[in-house]
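Write out the 3D structure for:
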Amino acid sequence: MSVGIGSLDHMDATRGLLDGLDTAGLNTALAEGTCLGLVPDAEAARVRIELEVLTLPTDGPPPTDHRVDLTLTGVSRVAASLRMQRWDDAEPKVFPLTLDTLGEAIAGFGGGALHGWDFIDADDSGWALWRELLSFDTTVSAEPGTHLLEFSQQEGIDPRELDVRIWFEDVTITTSAGTEIPLAEFIAGGARWWKAHDACDPRTMLPDVAPPM
Protein backbone atom coordinates (compact mmCIF):
# COMPACT_ATOMS: atom_id res chain seq x y z
CA MET A 1 0.00 0.00 0.00
CA SER A 2 1.35 3.41 -0.92
CA VAL A 3 1.53 6.40 1.41
CA GLY A 4 0.31 9.79 0.27
CA ILE A 5 2.50 12.86 0.57
CA GLY A 6 -0.08 14.41 2.88
CA SER A 7 0.72 11.86 5.60
CA LEU A 8 4.46 12.56 5.61
CA ASP A 9 4.46 15.47 8.02
CA HIS A 10 2.81 13.44 10.77
CA MET A 11 5.28 10.57 10.42
CA ASP A 12 8.27 12.90 10.34
CA ALA A 13 7.01 14.78 13.39
CA THR A 14 6.91 11.59 15.47
CA ARG A 15 10.54 10.73 14.70
CA GLY A 16 13.07 11.24 17.47
CA LEU A 17 16.48 10.02 18.48
CA LEU A 18 16.92 6.31 19.09
CA ASP A 19 16.60 5.88 22.83
CA GLY A 20 19.85 4.74 24.39
CA LEU A 21 21.66 4.43 21.06
CA ASP A 22 24.83 6.27 20.12
CA THR A 23 23.40 7.56 16.85
CA ALA A 24 26.48 9.64 16.02
CA GLY A 25 28.73 6.66 16.67
CA LEU A 26 26.61 4.39 14.50
CA ASN A 27 26.66 6.94 11.69
CA THR A 28 30.46 7.07 11.90
CA ALA A 29 30.67 3.27 11.77
CA LEU A 30 28.54 3.23 8.61
CA ALA A 31 30.39 6.05 6.83
CA GLU A 32 32.00 5.03 3.52
CA GLY A 33 30.76 1.49 3.93
CA THR A 34 29.82 -0.47 0.82
CA CYS A 35 26.22 -1.48 0.23
CA LEU A 36 26.17 -5.01 -1.17
CA GLY A 37 22.46 -5.74 -1.10
CA LEU A 38 19.10 -5.39 0.60
CA VAL A 39 16.64 -8.13 1.50
CA PRO A 40 13.13 -7.10 2.60
CA ASP A 41 10.74 -9.30 4.56
CA ALA A 42 7.45 -7.44 4.57
CA GLU A 43 5.62 -10.17 6.47
CA ALA A 44 8.10 -9.88 9.36
CA ALA A 45 8.35 -6.06 9.01
CA ARG A 46 12.10 -6.45 8.60
CA VAL A 47 14.78 -5.23 6.18
CA ARG A 48 18.29 -6.67 6.10
CA ILE A 49 21.03 -4.57 4.48
CA GLU A 50 24.28 -6.30 3.51
CA LEU A 51 27.33 -4.08 4.00
CA GLU A 52 31.09 -4.00 4.04
CA VAL A 53 32.23 -1.55 6.71
CA LEU A 54 35.44 0.16 7.74
CA THR A 55 36.53 -1.26 11.08
CA LEU A 56 39.67 -2.00 13.06
CA PRO A 57 40.31 -4.22 16.08
CA THR A 58 42.01 -2.87 19.19
CA ASP A 59 45.32 -4.25 17.92
CA GLY A 60 46.59 -5.85 14.76
CA PRO A 61 45.53 -5.82 11.12
CA PRO A 62 42.01 -5.11 9.90
CA PRO A 63 39.72 -8.13 9.61
CA THR A 64 39.89 -10.07 6.36
CA ASP A 65 36.08 -10.25 6.25
CA HIS A 66 34.41 -6.98 7.16
CA ARG A 67 30.95 -7.82 5.87
CA VAL A 68 28.04 -7.26 8.24
CA ASP A 69 24.27 -7.40 8.06
CA LEU A 70 22.39 -4.40 9.41
CA THR A 71 18.87 -5.56 10.20
CA LEU A 72 16.05 -3.12 10.79
CA THR A 73 13.02 -4.48 12.63
CA GLY A 74 9.61 -3.00 13.23
CA VAL A 75 9.79 -1.54 9.73
CA SER A 76 6.68 0.47 8.96
CA ARG A 77 7.46 2.09 5.64
CA VAL A 78 10.03 2.11 2.83
CA ALA A 79 10.39 4.79 0.14
CA ALA A 80 12.90 4.99 -2.69
CA SER A 81 13.72 7.05 -5.75
CA LEU A 82 15.70 5.59 -8.65
CA ARG A 83 16.27 8.28 -11.23
CA MET A 84 18.59 9.36 -13.99
CA GLN A 85 19.40 12.85 -15.19
CA ARG A 86 21.96 13.46 -17.90
CA TRP A 87 23.60 16.83 -18.33
CA ASP A 88 21.16 17.83 -21.08
CA ASP A 89 17.98 16.59 -19.35
CA ALA A 90 15.65 19.29 -18.10
CA GLU A 91 14.09 16.92 -15.55
CA PRO A 92 15.18 13.60 -14.06
CA LYS A 93 13.64 10.39 -15.35
CA VAL A 94 12.18 8.39 -12.46
CA PHE A 95 12.15 4.59 -12.80
CA PRO A 96 9.43 2.48 -11.18
CA LEU A 97 10.45 0.09 -8.40
CA THR A 98 8.76 -2.00 -5.72
CA LEU A 99 9.93 -3.14 -2.32
CA ASP A 100 10.65 -6.55 -3.83
CA THR A 101 12.84 -5.12 -6.62
CA LEU A 102 14.74 -2.62 -4.44
CA GLY A 103 17.51 -5.12 -3.71
CA GLU A 104 17.99 -5.70 -7.43
CA ALA A 105 18.29 -1.94 -8.00
CA ILE A 106 20.93 -1.66 -5.27
CA ALA A 107 22.87 -4.59 -6.74
CA GLY A 108 22.85 -2.73 -10.06
CA PHE A 109 25.29 -0.20 -8.59
CA GLY A 110 27.85 -2.97 -8.09
CA GLY A 111 28.60 -2.15 -4.47
CA GLY A 112 28.10 1.57 -4.02
CA ALA A 113 29.61 3.48 -1.10
CA LEU A 114 27.56 5.01 1.69
CA HIS A 115 28.77 8.57 1.30
CA GLY A 116 28.15 11.12 4.03
CA TRP A 117 27.92 11.01 7.81
CA ASP A 118 24.19 11.02 8.58
CA PHE A 119 22.22 7.84 8.03
CA ILE A 120 20.26 7.14 11.22
CA ASP A 121 17.61 9.72 12.15
CA ALA A 122 19.00 12.24 9.69
CA ASP A 123 17.19 15.52 9.20
CA ASP A 124 14.82 15.98 6.28
CA SER A 125 17.08 18.10 4.05
CA GLY A 126 17.98 15.20 1.76
CA TRP A 127 14.47 13.75 1.79
CA ALA A 128 13.08 17.12 0.71
CA LEU A 129 15.08 16.89 -2.54
CA TRP A 130 13.54 13.62 -3.73
CA ARG A 131 10.26 13.04 -1.90
CA GLU A 132 8.38 14.22 -5.01
CA LEU A 133 10.40 11.87 -7.27
CA LEU A 134 9.38 8.54 -5.78
CA SER A 135 9.78 5.17 -7.47
CA PHE A 136 7.64 3.72 -4.68
CA ASP A 137 6.46 4.53 -1.17
CA THR A 138 5.10 1.48 0.61
CA THR A 139 3.54 0.91 4.00
CA VAL A 140 4.94 -2.33 5.43
CA SER A 141 3.28 -2.52 8.85
CA ALA A 142 1.34 -0.56 11.46
CA GLU A 143 4.47 0.05 13.56
CA PRO A 144 4.90 3.73 14.48
CA GLY A 145 8.08 4.19 12.42
CA THR A 146 9.74 6.27 15.10
CA HIS A 147 13.22 6.15 13.55
CA LEU A 148 14.68 6.07 10.08
CA LEU A 149 17.64 5.08 7.97
CA GLU A 150 18.41 7.03 4.81
CA PHE A 151 21.16 6.35 2.29
CA SER A 152 22.05 6.95 -1.36
CA GLN A 153 23.77 5.04 -4.13
CA GLN A 154 25.61 6.95 -6.85
CA GLU A 155 28.93 6.02 -8.39
CA GLY A 156 31.36 7.84 -10.67
CA ILE A 157 29.97 9.20 -13.92
CA ASP A 158 26.89 6.96 -13.79
CA PRO A 159 23.94 9.36 -14.26
CA ARG A 160 21.70 7.15 -12.11
CA GLU A 161 21.04 7.89 -8.45
CA LEU A 162 19.14 5.85 -5.88
CA ASP A 163 17.86 7.25 -2.59
CA VAL A 164 16.31 5.02 0.06
CA ARG A 165 14.51 5.88 3.29
CA ILE A 166 13.31 3.24 5.77
CA TRP A 167 11.20 3.92 8.87
CA PHE A 168 11.82 1.39 11.66
CA GLU A 169 11.86 0.68 15.40
CA ASP A 170 15.08 -1.23 16.19
CA VAL A 171 18.42 -2.17 14.66
CA THR A 172 20.85 -5.06 15.11
CA ILE A 173 24.23 -5.85 13.56
CA THR A 174 25.47 -9.36 12.78
CA THR A 175 28.48 -10.80 11.02
CA SER A 176 27.97 -12.32 7.59
CA ALA A 177 27.90 -15.69 9.41
CA GLY A 178 24.99 -14.54 11.58
CA THR A 179 26.78 -13.82 14.89
CA GLU A 180 25.37 -10.74 16.58
CA ILE A 181 27.80 -7.87 17.18
CA PRO A 182 26.89 -5.66 20.15
CA LEU A 183 26.20 -2.15 18.88
CA ALA A 184 28.84 -0.66 21.20
CA GLU A 185 31.45 -3.05 19.78
CA PHE A 186 30.45 -2.25 16.19
CA ILE A 187 30.60 1.49 16.88
CA ALA A 188 34.00 1.19 18.59
CA GLY A 189 35.47 -0.62 15.58
CA GLY A 190 34.34 2.16 13.26
CA ALA A 191 35.62 4.87 15.59
CA ARG A 192 39.03 3.18 15.73
CA TRP A 193 39.17 3.04 11.93
CA TRP A 194 38.45 6.75 11.47
CA LYS A 195 40.81 7.76 14.28
CA ALA A 196 43.55 5.69 12.62
CA HIS A 197 42.66 7.21 9.24
CA ASP A 198 43.06 10.73 10.62
CA ALA A 199 46.49 9.69 11.96
CA CYS A 200 47.52 8.40 8.48
CA ASP A 201 47.65 4.81 9.71
CA PRO A 202 48.65 2.69 6.68
CA ARG A 203 45.93 0.16 7.56
CA THR A 204 43.37 2.74 6.46
CA MET A 205 44.96 3.84 3.19
CA LEU A 206 42.37 2.57 0.71
CA PRO A 207 41.97 3.59 -2.94
CA ASP A 208 38.29 4.47 -2.57
CA VAL A 209 38.61 6.54 0.62
CA ALA A 210 40.02 10.05 0.51
CA PRO A 211 43.18 10.61 2.59
CA PRO A 212 42.91 12.82 5.69
CA MET A 213 42.94 16.55 5.12
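Residues 1-17 have pLDDT under 50 and may be disordered.
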